[in-house]
Design brief:
This protein is 13% helix and 22% strand. It is α+β, with helices and mostly antiparallel strands. It starts with 7 loop residues before the first strand and ends in a 5-residue tail after the last helix.
Length: 86
């Protein structure tokens, strides 16, 4: 079954960080650590995207191979070609 990731973010760099709470705001710059997960750093590979193992957010490199593609199709392609990729 193909499903879309819960959230897809377009980014400008191959190296990204995710804490699961960056979009949860209570005011200017407020981040509630209790609503997220430990901050992790991820590297976008040749597929043009990377998924967070905690919250399943997908980070897509602007202008990369995954930019503008159907995200549910990308999941199947990555699983078939790279067993370590989610």
């Amino acid at each position: 079954m193909n499903t879309h990731p819960p959230e897809t973010l377009l980014v400008d760099t191959r190296r990204v960080s995710c804490d699961g709470a960056s979009a949860i705001r209570g005011g200017a710059g407020y981040r509630s650590a209790s609503l997220g997960h430990p901050r992790i750093y991820l590297e976008i590979d040749e597929h043009g995207y990377v998924d967070c193992g905690y919250c399943d957010r997908r980070f897509v490199l602007k202008g990369g191979p995954a930019d503008g593609a159907d995200q549910s199709d990308l999941h199947d392609i990555a699983e078939g070609s790279d067993p370590g990729h989610r």
